[in-house]
Specification:
With about 350 residues, this protein is α+β, with helices and mostly antiparallel strands. The chain has helices at about 5-10, 10-25, 30-35, 50-65, 80-90, 95-110, 140-160, 180-185, 210-220, 225, 235-245, 255-260, 265-275, 280-300, 305-310, 315-325, 330-340; strands at about 10, 50, 115-120, 125-130, 165-170, 185-190, 195-200.
């Protein structure tokens, strides 16, 4: 049986990263770890891991000591309680679109160092996180945390797991890249011009199903329910996608084979996926899109060859499908991404 430890404990890289802003300001990291109940040896031993509860406590302590919800990793601090106030301001939103707009407007008033925006292209929504006033410290932990919080808060507001198509990071690929597969169970691209979260546009019109009462329970569990123990992390859709992530498109199993492997009837599997706002066809399409994006970014194959490896009999069919997904043809998408790197 596969070792499930990484889903239950926090890797040392995240512990060290969460402390980098605190350490830069002369904080005693050893003492703070001890207050959180984490063995300080984790700073030197990459094999050690932290329990979710103690990591959540550490995050709270870092924010309180620095009086900054951005962990001291941005050019300007964000006052304590900002996320709490944002969530309260957004709870009366009608749809996810309204909630996102309210959220981004709120943070534009409390922070000038990070800008949030979103746009639709085809069937995709692209949420951008631009760090316009970074601090002196590496900001990758801040960006990752903001992405996770946005996705998990957004999922909570609509009561559906917001499945990601891909995420783009400005930073270089980390050495501990495998640790990120559970945080972001989708295509992950590094050294990109913008930090982006990309997901299906169908979520935008979904209604906000939470209210003031459920919000109080949600806020009482911060930050653990966002950063360490989100109940949708092991959604059926994500489990299937992880299982298929390294499979060539032409070798993807049938729906019946997937159901059998999960010890479910096809009717049960279809119903459960629908409950998550997804379908097996959409999961396969997302894998197709990931394969296409992978090769388009790397300039290693012609568009006709990419059409073939993604399972399209005709390049014209691939062009139509890709434009439906992203709003652009494969050639225009490749040209746009390339031009972003040209000074």
């Amino acid at each position: 049986m596969k070792d499930e430890r990484p889903t239950r404990t926090i890797a040392s890289i995240f512990v060290r990263s969460s402390l980098s802003g605190y350490a830069a300001r002369g904080g005693d990291c050893t003492a703070l770890l001890e207050r959180a109940g984490i063995d300080p040896a984790i700073l030197q031993n990459s094999e050690l891991r932290a329990e979710p509860e103690t990591f959540s406590q550490l995050i709270q302590l870092v924010c309180m000591e620095l009086e900054d919800e951005f962990f001291g990793l941005s050019g300007k601090p964000v006052p304590l309680g900002a996320f709490n106030m944002m969530a309260r301001a957004c709870i009366t939103s009608a749809t996810l679109t309204d909630a996102l707009r309210c959220c981004f407007k709120f943070f534009s008033m409390v922070s000038t160092s990070v800008r949030f925006s979103f746009s639709c292209q085809g069937e995709e929504v692209r949420v951008a996180i631009d760090h316009v006033e970074p601090g002196e410290q590496d900001d990758h932990f801040l960006i990752e945390s903001l992405m996770i919080c946005l996705v998990r808060w957004g999922s909570w507001t609509i009561g559906r797991h917001l499945l990601l198509n891909r995420v783009d990071f400005c930073c270089s690929e980390p050495r501990e890249v495998d640790e990120y597969s559970l945080l972001f169970p989708c295509s992950r691209n590094y050294n990109q011009p913008r930090n982006l979260i990309v997901f299906g546009a169908r979520y935008l019109a979904m209604p906000v199903v939470q209210d003031a009462r459920s919000l109080s329970d949600f806020l009482a569990e911060l930050p653990g329910n966002l950063l360490t123990r989100y109940r949708h992390d092991d959604s059926l859709s994500s489990r299937i996608r992880r299982r298929l992530s390294n499979t060539r498109y032409e070798e993807l199993p049938s729906f019946e084979e997937i159901a059998s492997g999960l010890n479910m009837s096809t009717q049960t599997l279809r119903r459960r996926l629908k409950g998550e706002g997804n379908s097996y066809r959409e999961i396969k399409d997302s894998i197709r899109r990931d394969i296409a994006v992978y090769h388009l970014l790397r300039q290693d194959m012609s568009i006709n060859d990419i059409a073939e490896v993604t399972g399209f009999a005709e390049p014209s069919t691939f062009h139509r499908a890709f434009k439906k997904w992203t709003g652009l043809t494969p050639g225009a998408w490749r040209e746009e991404r390339t031009s972003l790197f040209v000074e």
